[in-house]
Design goal:
alpha+beta; globular; 393 residues; four-stranded mixed sheet
Length: 393
């Protein structure tokens, strides 16, 4: 969705369109449309190719290696990427810890980490959630105690996406015990090959390995790995969560990919009297999601304009995250409906079944989309934010 464009923006759109026309292999497209991520090595190569073009960090300021694009240019870039079935860039380094480092980090941290994030040299994971401290992040118990020139970390993190392939993790840990639970928390950078750090996979409903438990047993990291001020991690964590909702906003620009797949599948599927797409009931459901996706994209553009102007967008990020997560669940569910019984293959629990080697990606995407209303702050959390900040309840 792109508004009326100035001549410079039209030229930029043509440049972006030409880039994506030559950059997206056909074998990526079904995975991308299902909302699943491509393999890490593929995403890393894609990130490097964008970085070589100078487009590695679309939302970052120029002084830190970003593009400095206007909201209109961001909209063009994401819209053209979605139209070409390109994947969203993976965000843990790019959209979460990277901006925190260039805003609050030391100069040495900026010099070392930021270029490696842009080129995809480092894959970051997020050490936030814990048993008993997911949406209630203030309940976290992982500790980082000073010992000489090091912090010594002990604790457990849960639902850590891609920890098994990550090079680095940003961790929230308690560096002191305060009466108020939100105080005494610090943000610390940890190399994943540090002795004492152990990863245990969690296999999820979609039969993929995205997420993990991470155990930290006497993990020593230098004091220089602290980001910002000690004890101020709660504030940085809130900024990170706000940015995660912004990531959801950007991802909302990619909803048309899934909706195109739904439309194509419905047109292929033969049912009594024609195709599934010919049935008014199905077309009505698809049209409703398409209309809401357009409305959501308009809200994303306002969000981007606010961010570029330095304006507080209020709870709009929560609104976009909440509605995007519901729409992607509806869209992937409708894709499974469009495909019919052929989409309903699962691996046998004993591993000896005769199902196809690749379970249809549409169903995997539909199952994976269940998590979107949980991560980055559950829908209940988003509704509370909207109720408090927008409605004054």
């Amino acid at each position: 969705m792109t508004p009326s464009l100035a001549p410079d923006d039209l030229a930029f759109r043509d440049e972006v369109r030409a880039f994506f026309a030559d950059s997206i292999p056909d074998d990526w497209k079904t995975t991308v449309r299902s909302g699943l991520r491509l393999p890490p090595e593929t995403l890393t190569a894609y990130q490097k190719r964008l970085a070589d073009r100078g487009w590695g960090a679309p939302t970052w300021p120029v002084e830190y290696g970003g593009t400095g694009w206007t909201p209109a240019q961001l909209s063009i870039f994401w819209s053209e990427a979605a139209a070409a079935d390109a994947p969203p860039q993976f965000h843990q380094g790019l959209e979460l810890i990277g901006p925190i480092i260039f805003t609050y980090g030391r100069q040495a941290q900026k010099d070392f980490y930021l270029p490696r994030i842009i080129t995809g040299e480092d894959w970051w994971c997020q050490g936030y959630s814990e048993p008993g401290a997911g949406s209630d992040l203030a309940a976290l118990r992982t500790r980082a105690d000073r010992d000489g020139d090091d912090y010594v970390l002990n604790g457990q993190k849960m639902w850590t996406s891609y920890a098994h392939v990550a090079d680095r993790m940003f961790v929230l840990a308690r560096t002191s015990t305060e009466a108020k639970r939100q105080q005494g928390i610090s943000l610390i950078l940890v190399d994943m090959d540090t002795p004492g750090l152990r990863i245990q996979p969690i296999h999820t409903l979609d039969e993929k390995h995205h997420t993990n438990e991470v155990f930290l047993d006497d993990v020593r990291v230098p004091l220089s790995n602290l980001v910002g001020e000690e004890g101020m991690g709660w504030g940085y964590g809130k900024v990170l969560l706000d940015r995660e909702r912004m990531v959801a906003a950007a991802t909302a620009m990619f909803l048309p990919q899934t909706l195109r797949a739904v439309r194509e599948a419905a047109k292929r599927r033969r049912v009594p009297g024609g195709t599934l797409f010919d049935r008014p009931g199905f077309r009505s459901k698809l049209a409703q999601i398409e209309i809401e996706a357009l409305a959501l994209q308009a809200m994303v553009m306002r969000l981007m304009a606010d961010a570029a102007a330095g304006a507080d967008s209020g709870p709009r990020g929560s609104m976009v995250k909440l509605r995007w997560s519901e729409l992607i669940q509806q869209a992937t569910g409708l894709w499974v409906e469009a495909l019919g019984p052929a989409a309903q293959h699962f691996e046998a629990l004993d591993g000896n079944g005769k199902t196809p080697p690749d379970m249809p990606l549409a169903l995997q995407g539909a199952l994976y989309s269940r998590v979107t209303t949980i991560y980055g702050g559950s829908s209940e959390i988003q509704r509370n934010i909207i109720a408090r900040r927008a409605l004054g309840l």
